[in-house]
Request: fold
Amino acid sequence: MKKAVLISTAILLAVLTVVFAQERGVKKKRPLPQDYGKVVLNNFSEKNRMAPVAFDHWLHRSKFTCRLCHSDIGFEMKAGATEIKADDNINGFYCGTCHNGKRIFDGKFLFPACDKGKRDEVCDRCHSSGKDVKRENNFSELTAKLPKERFGNGIDWEKAEKDNLIKLIDFIDGVSISRKKEMPVQKDFSLEPKVSGLPEIVFSHQKHTVWNGCEVCHPDIFTGVKKGATKYSMIEIFDGKFCGVCHGKVAFPTMDCQRCHVKPVS
Ligand code: HEC
Ligand code: HEC
Ligand code: HEC
Ligand code: HEC
Ligand code: HEC
Ligand code: HEC
Reply:
């Protein structure tokens, strides 16, 4: 009994050390709401005298599901890992799946990616990192009516969707693999923290599947097709593994303890 208490105190201390270390770095590191989820791509750009590419998750996730990009189109969930080349885009892969000058969205043609016949201003729309490029899609204007949250983009994306304030596209003809309309429903479950006395974590399979499908999580992030098969700790989550692959980068960050631990943690 005493030993168990000692162990849980030790784990809690370790977790809190990580939290405080993060908090201390927060002042300079916590991004502005519009910069949360921004990915800067520079595998090849500067080597070819182009500015690095800035990709905003907030704008794209307000229109498409995670699954469409990370499963059907095939972007990795790790900055820089896809190694996108200008030729891929020109040939209609990756960004060029949509940004090909032909696809119509909201009544206008989507500007093309890496098309050599185009002028610099078109290039600048993506190759914008470190440059003073004016965005056509303004964050404050476009998100003004969406429900607010404390962290991340400052937006409760889940509620925005539930209230029909955003409608996400999950299928592109000729790109997405056609599949049964309804994905199999998985039971929601609660995860028990290894430390006794901590409020349990609620994990909704059903909700996550709407955003991510199955393929994004299984088997890459969670091998376990059996609950409990994947062992992970809060420290690993803070470190960007397991739930932390998304939570802390694009989905609401780990600082928001209560959204996973349904009651206050400490
Ligand atoms: C329009 C396409 C698109 C949509 C929609 C999208 N993503 Fe991404 N995502 C990307 C691209 C592109 C990258 C960068 C990939 C690379 O560099 O190889 C990325 C990277 C990521 C990363 C890694 C970030 C990092 O800093 O390492 C995570 C995590 C992620 N996405 C999660 C999500 C989640 C969760 C959603 C849904 C809420 C989502 N994405 C929706 C295109 C998209
Ligand atoms: C699934 C389709 C899709 C994919 C894939 C996609 N985009 Fe977009 N993107 C859009 C739509 C729709 C808009 C909003 C329409 C607009 O601004 O004209 C947009 C807007 C943008 C803008 C906003 C420009 C502005 O002035 O506000 C940038 C920058 C951008 N995309 C970059 C990228 C990059 C870089 C990639 C690849 C890493 C990418 N997109 C992949 C659909 C896509
Ligand atoms: C819709 C977004 C988008 C637009 C618009 C765009 N690019 Fe790109 N481009 C990318 C992405 C993403 C990469 C990969 C970035 C990296 O990792 O360095 C890239 C990479 C490149 C590279 C790197 C070298 C190579 O061969 O892969 C060159 C050169 C390039 N683009 C040229 C251009 C030119 C010229 C324009 C304007 C005519 C342009 N791009 C417009 C998204 C875009
Ligand atoms: C956001 C990530 C995520 C998505 C999306 C997701 N899962 Fe899971 N799944 C998990 C986690 C986490 C577990 C528990 C694993 C563990 O504890 O080792 C799990 C467990 C399971 C289990 C075992 C359940 C049990 O009670 O033993 C099955 C079966 C499963 N998933 C199937 C699916 C299917 C089918 C889909 C798509 C319809 C899906 N999952 C989508 C994260 C996800
Ligand atoms: C593949 C990406 C991904 C992974 C992995 C992931 N999530 Fe999420 N999760 C999301 C997205 C996207 C949302 C929507 C809200 C947002 O973006 O802020 C979300 C929302 C949630 C919510 C609020 C919705 C609800 O159920 O009431 C909870 C709680 C949550 N996640 C817990 C977890 C836990 C616990 C894990 C690990 C077992 C996990 N998530 C793994 C992407 C992910
Ligand atoms: C994205 C969801 C999510 C968020 C946000 C989150 N946790 Fe956790 N936490 C988990 C999961 C899942 C576990 C279960 C790991 C296990 O024991 O299997 C866990 C376990 C724990 C544990 C038990 C020790 C361990 O490593 O398992 C502690 C302590 C903890 N969390 C504290 C926190 C604190 C403090 C915060 C806020 C700063 C926080 N958590 C935010 C998902 C989350």
User: Anything to note?
Assistant: The pocket of heme C (ligand 4) is lined by residues 183-184, 186, 203, 205, 208-209, 212, 214, 216-218, 222, 224-230 (CB under 6 Å). The CA atoms of residues 122 and 209 lie 35 Å apart.
